[in-house]
Amino acid sequence: MTAFVRAWRRNLHRLFEIGVLIKGADGVLEIIGGFLFWLLPQSALNTVVVSLTAHELSEDPGDRVANLLRHAVEGLSLDTRLFASAYLVVHGVVKVFLVTVLLRGKMWAYPTALAFLGAFVFYQFYRLVHTRSIGLLILTAFDLMVLSLIWLEYRRRAGLKAR
Fold first, then answer.
1. Residue 76: helix, strand or coil by DSSP?
2. Is the pLDDT of residue 71 over 60?
3. What is the pLDDT of residue 69?
4. How far apart are CA 142 and CA 137, in angstroms?
5. At a CB cut-off of 8 Å and minimum separation 6, what does 13 contact?
6. How far apart are CA 98 and CA 113, in angstroms?
7. Mean pLDDT of the 94-106 span
8. What are the tens digits of pLDDT across the range 124-148?
9. pLDDT tens digits, one per residue of 35-64
10. How would you classify residue 123: left for phi > 0, otherwise alpha for psi between -120 and 50, otherwise beta?
């Protein structure tokens, strides 16, 4: 094996670790956000959204995203908040768990993570068709990169195990 190939594999492994760690950090933020969404009173949520959108609306009062966020938070029912909170917490816990077992090199975690992330990428593609959101496009591209890195790492590790 040439030095170039060894360096390439080492860099792919580092990218795998970085991508998976970013997904893990995202999972932790989802857990925190889910609990905050559940625990904060409606008035506090309104205040947070107003403060986050104030600058954008001062520059462009017709900004669709900022106005949509403000309107959405104002009309949240308790059931919707509970569902969104539970979704964020469960999704975040699953991500953190999968990141942990991936970084520990558990072979069963690779196909599980591929299936889990693949299902979300599939859903993101579905949403992209309807929303054409640039943010969702960037997230989907990142998730596809992480999917590829998990697949390459799985193949590398499976190949090492077979020898």
1. coil
2. yes
3. 82
4. 9
5. 153, 156
6. 6
7. 96
8. 898 888 888 788 899 899 999 999 9
9. 998 998 888 888 888 888 888 888 888 888
10. alpha
The structure tokens listed for 40 are 């904060």
Q: What is the pLDDT of residue 160?
A: 62
- Residue 116 has phi, psi (to 5 degrees) of -60, -55
Residue 110's nearest CA partner among 163, 161, 160, 155 is: 155
Give the sign of the dihedral formed by CA 93, CA 95, CA 140, CA 57: positive
Are 24 and 99 in contact by the 8 Å Cβ rule? The answer is yes
Tally: H helices and E strands in the chain: 6, 0
Phi/psi-derived region of residue 41, left when phi > 0, alpha when psi is between -120 and 50, beta in every other case: beta
Q: Closest Cα to residue 91, out of 66, 116, 62? A: 116
Look-up of token digits 């969104």: 84
Residue 82: CB atoms within 10 A of its CB come to: 12
Choose among 37, 23, 160, 3: nearest CA to 94. 23
Residue type (1 letter), 58: S
Q: Burial, 98: exposed, middle or buried (Cβ in 10 Å; 0-12, 13-18, 19+)?
A: buried
Q: Report the C-alpha gap between 37 and 31 in whole angstroms.
A: 10
